[in-house]
């Protein structure tokens, strides 16, 4: 596979990929394997991704539309009432000066009307005519005021949300060409993990099994409770069987732990047994460098992906934002995520030749970021109080006042911090 490392072989593992290179590589591979385009009714497109630009089928509005309740008048007043036009109707033209029709908000303005007089600013005269002074600014929306027919409103790759669905309906669409949300699964590795109760007696509580699916959903994935398996027994046959079953029903399988080459780290040999090839095998980033992304091609010829997340919780989230986020953007046909920048209010040390992803709290109004405490790779306290990761590039330090890229943590759809 172009741009990928060689077939899975721990003995021949290449040096870690640079962090920015790894992001670009996994995005390109995801885009090359983008999910198929399907046509879905509007009501079923929420959470999908536009697969073609959205453009109106007619001018918006398609005809002159009254923006108030009142009277569509022709010429100087007072005016003789000759009819009424409601929303949804097509009025007859106003052909004579001194005539008017009652008009409702949203109704089509009749041809020949010179102004609209607001109902609250009108009076009836003794001879049953309408009098008043129309405002100087037109009280109707002109055809094409919002958009012209064929004008691109949103590009392909835009996430579909309720606002987009409403816009598409107003443009005249009954369905949209979209890419569905990726289906994801999670395999939790580690005999030392507890799934309930407090840690003790040499065993620790699994923090990633409950958390990773929620992160994946925030990236637009579909993850069911049945898609989470573990802890998987620390044996090679158990790893191979779990991976084979998970890959059969998912576009992406995330695993936790086992990304190194210790005595019970079976992920690499399991991937080798399944005929996977690496897209990325370790990344020069701290924390989280023993992350990986591998690709398997199914019997249908479609690629499925396995993201190996380190077992340390914060390292696992670094792997999610570093590899999984750009991969999922590619699979959905979305643009590569563009990183915002923030100004550091406190120093952040560099990590030598490795990129340092440092947890920070953002002040959006001020455009600043400050590092948080409790940020060991096995800790989650700092993560719970952070908004994202400041990117400290290799062979640099984050000085006070420096403008640095920030990888925001994913939010629920509709939430925006930048």
From TrEMBL:
Q: Which reaction does it catalyse?
A: adenylyl-molybdopterin + molybdate = Mo-molybdopterin + AMP + H(+)
Print the keywords alphabetically: Magnesium, Metal-binding, Molybdenum, Molybdenum cofactor biosynthesis, Transferase
* Pathway in which the depicted protein is active: Cofactor biosynthesis; molybdopterin biosynthesis
Which cofactors does this protein require? Mg(2+)
Q: Where is the MoaB/Mog domain?
A: 185-330
What Gene3D superfamilies would the database entry show? MoaB/Mog-like domain, MoeA, C-terminal, domain IV, Molybdopterin biosynthesis moea protein, domain 2, Molybdopterin biosynthesis moea protein, domain 3
Q: Which family does it belong to?
A: Belongs to the MoeA family.
Report the protein's function.
Catalyzes the insertion of molybdate into adenylated molybdopterin with the concomitant release of AMP.
The name under which this protein is listed is: Molybdopterin molybdenumtransferase
